[in-house]
Design a protein that fits this description.
single chain; about 210 residues; two-stranded antiparallel sheet; 6 helices; about 0% strand
Length: about 210
């Protein structure tokens, strides 16, 4: 049985998630291949990964990059369409909320820790320049990207949940209103505003159903 997809329009929240996730993925892949771009902002974990050797580094960072890429690809796939089945749509939205919530929480907690660490380091008599680079890197780049990645995913899912509710309203309209049924129907009564509303509300809802 073919899977019926509903064409979607990519929201700005989804683009935010895709871009932030793509940046994370790109750097993980670059580090796996041996690049040292912005590696000084990562901290001691970079030294630990380097101690695994070339093969270990490529395997570990490659797996991390692959996991991030999978998430980004799934988000991009949502811009092309999602199943019309209400259950599958609900499952996708739930996955977005759980994944996005986890990324947002991790990013926010890490930013808080980095911010506290940065404040403490700046109040030292002789701050360590390398430590400042790492703390600023986590606070302003990596942790922030995680938080924005999660925020974009969560907001996109919440927006689409509201739109999915509109789709259910449209399906009820399709089954119950005579303008969408075959056969003759009475023209709207100019003296009855309700009749004109029933004829004109469907196109508006149809336009709203593809907002996510």
């Amino acid at each position: 049985m073919a899977l019926s997809l509903g064409r979607t329009r990519c929201s700005s929240w989804l683009w935010l998630a895709v871009v932030c996730g793509g940046i994370h993925t790109g750097f993980s892949a670059a580090w796996a291949l041996g690049s040292d771009a912005l590696l000084g902002t990562v901290g001691s974990i970079a030294d630990k990964v380097a101690s695994f050797g070339v093969g270990g580094r490529m395997g570990l960072l490659g797996a991390i990059a692959g996991a991030k890429l999978t998430v980004v690809v799934l988000l991009v796939a949502e811009t092309w369409g999602v199943p019309r089945s209400p259950r599958l749509r609900a499952l996708i939205r739930l996955a977005d909320l759980v994944l996005g919530g986890g990324l947002l929480l991790y990013g926010a907690v890490s930013m808080t820790g980095s911010g506290v660490g940065l404040w403490m380091e700046l109040n030292q008599p002789d701050p360590d320049p390398a430590a400042l680079v790492v703390l600023w890197g986590h606070l302003a780049i990596w942790d922030l990207l995680f938080a924005l990645w999660g925020l974009g995913t969560v907001m996109h899912a919440m927006r689409c949940q509201r739109t999915d509710g509109g789709r259910r309203d449209i399906s009820v309209y399709d089954r119950t209103n005579s303008p969408l049924q075959e056969g003759p129907h009475e023209p709207p009564d100019d003296n009855n505003p309700a009749s004109s509303i029933s004829l004109t509300s469907a196109p508006t809802m149809e336009r709203n159903q593809d907002e996510c």
